[in-house]
Amino acid sequence: MSQLERFGVSMEGDLLKRFDDRIALKGYRTRSEAIRDLVRQELVESAWEQPNALVFGTVTLIYDHHARGLSEVLAELQHDHHASILCTTHVHVDAHSCLEVIIVKGTTEVVRRIADALIATKGVQHGHLVCSAVG
What we know:
- The structure is a single chain.
- The protein is of the alpha+beta class.
- It has two domains: 13-47; 54-132, 2-Layer Sandwich (Alpha-Beta Plaits), CATH 3.30.70.
- Helices cover 40% and strands 29% of the residues.
- It has four helices and four strands.
- A four-stranded antiparallel β-sheet has the order 2-3-1-4.
- The mean pLDDT is 95.
């Protein structure tokens, strides 16, 4: 682990109060912990701006499993990208709805293309890509 370095941050009192209230709700013990997480989040987002960066993500889908042929189409899309799909978890939400979480790895461009194809599939009721990166 790197050596910690200290630096000062100046901000308006009301902004600091709102920040303190927010980080307390999220369970941070110190402002430093919260600021480190904000910086890490910014760095992850910057990685996703580069089309060839190696990234990870989760694609969450909710769909009606009674929709004709939908399960097969989703499975086929995943097989088409087997090198980038690390794992899929399938949950039966109720008598009609399924939730899938698909863990993906690859370049930003490839991961976004896979997520877009899955989410745009006819019959998917909701889909969302959560982006992450290492380093």
